[in-house]
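Quick review question:
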């Protein structure tokens, strides 16, 4: 069972290789399960007992379920749809030495560079096409081995194994084809869109690793796949939402784009997207501004973004007393400077949910001499200030194009989030929390 859901999740990743595809694929799952799509530029006629979702930019998505009766809060999970990659630049073709056509590309997010070399890559994303008197969005995925970033041979630089600083403009440019391929990029993009070359107006296209996800290890205990950070959490949160729903809470599931570049876009966690949606839900259900604030004061958000497992070859990089392992259950992330939003209150609430779900928890704290990363929670809290906890699943090689995690952890997260959505979280005036 644990292995099956991880395999399903990796199949989803394989067929949804960009943030646009991830949002589109999750929207499809929601539609198939009776969620109605809403549009931001239309009036919403919300009904109690119904399920909805709304998208922004085609790459971020917020789904919600409204119970039949009186509601007390929003119970929310947030994750992200994007992963570090290389974005194809405008006018990308570069002919080198008259024998190669390369594609000019730039880094998207902070990735490990070395593992991008010597493996088949492909290209996916969105293309704007002139059609019907306007411009239309098309998602494309070449879905074949298409480009490669070859390493320099060891014979040409004997120091390559002694540490190398990668230059994105010099070292990381993928080969598209030989000299006969000159001029073919725009044509092939147009063909993927089913459009004429002159009708392709602009693109957001990214490289992705073609190697599909796999289950491995002596006991089949590990998984490796592209984009585990953070599609593992995004997929699990949508699956959990389909199963769990409390009669007094509005369940909300957010998947934001652009976490890897700081979330500061109109569709990112720092945007007004979540706030706009929560306001429209409350007002759509006949509440006023004060009643919305009352709802928010009792709301809870789980920011779900993967965490670092202890690396067996680099044990010293982990904190001495907080050492999460793959398959060890959900990781709660702590940081004194609140780069992770977890505090004693939110950690207690989340741990009680996991106890109810019979899911193990672990803790992650950076070594005190390592700054560490950041995530969605504290960024989203600038717009929507509610109780929050930062969690994730333990993984190795974060931001590699092929990451490693535990085969059992996807199921743990689905079970914990399902229990979260199923449990009413109430705060009393003296700060006591009760679960129903
Ligand atoms: Zn992440």
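Suggested answer, residue by residue:
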């Amino acid at each position: 069972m644990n292995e099956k859901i991880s395999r399903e999740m990796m199949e989803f990743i394989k067929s949804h290789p960009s943030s646009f595809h991830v949002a589109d694929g999750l929207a499809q799952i929601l539609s198939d399960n009776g969620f109605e799509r809403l549009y931001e530029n239309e009036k919403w006629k919300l009904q109690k007992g119904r399920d909805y979702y709304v998208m922004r930019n085609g790459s971020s998505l917020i789904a919600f379920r409204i119970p039949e009766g009186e509601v007390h809060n929003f119970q929310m999970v947030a994750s992200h749809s994007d992963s570090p990659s290389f974005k194809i630049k405008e006018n990308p073709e570069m002919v080198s030495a008259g024998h190669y056509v390369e594609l000019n590309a730039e880094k998207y997010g902070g990735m490990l560079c070395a593992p991008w070399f010597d493996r088949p890559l492909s290209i996916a994303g969105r293309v704007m096409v002139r059609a019907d008197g306007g411009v239309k969005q098309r998602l494309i995925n070449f879905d074949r081995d298409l480009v490669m970033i070859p390493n320099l041979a060891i014979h040409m630089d004997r120091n390559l194994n002694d540490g190398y600083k990668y230059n994105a403009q010099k070292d990381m440019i993928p080969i598209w084809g030989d000299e006969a391929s000159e001029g073919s990029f725009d044509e092939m993009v147009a063909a993927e869109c089913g459009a004429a070359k002159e009708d392709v107006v602009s693109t957001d296209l990214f490289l992705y690793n073609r190697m599909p996800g796999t289950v491995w290890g002596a006991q089949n205990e590990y998984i490796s796949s592209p984009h585990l950070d953070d599609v593992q959490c995004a997929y699990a949160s949508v699956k959990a939402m389909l199963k769990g729903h409390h009669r007094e809470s509005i369940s909300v599931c957010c998947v934001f784009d652009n976490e890897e570049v700081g979330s500061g876009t109109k569709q990112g966690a720092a945007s007004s997207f979540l706030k706009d949606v929560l306001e429209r839900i409350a007002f759509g259900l006949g509440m006023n501004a004060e009643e919305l604030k009352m709802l928010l004061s009792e709301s809870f958000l789980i920011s779900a973004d993967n965490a670092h497992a202890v690396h067996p070859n680099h044990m010293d990089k982990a904190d001495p007393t907080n050492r999460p392992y793959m398959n060890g259950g959900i990781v709660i992330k702590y940081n004194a400077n609140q780069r992770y939003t977890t505090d004693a209150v939110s950690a207690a609430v989340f741990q009680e949910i996991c106890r109810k779900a019979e899911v193990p928890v672990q803790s992650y704290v950076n070594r005190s001499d390592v700054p560490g990363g950041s995530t969605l929670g504290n960024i989203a809290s600038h717009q929507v200030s509610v109780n929050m906890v930062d969690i994730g699943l333990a993984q190795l090689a974060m931001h590699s194009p092929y990451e490693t995690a535990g085969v059992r952890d996807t199921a743990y997260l689905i079970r914990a989030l399902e229990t979260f959505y199923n449990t009413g979280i109430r705060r009393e005036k003296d700060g006591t929390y009760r679960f129903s």
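Why it works: DSSP finds nine helices and 21 strands in the chain. The pocket of zinc ion is lined by residues 80, 229-230, 259, 305-306 (CB under 6 Å).
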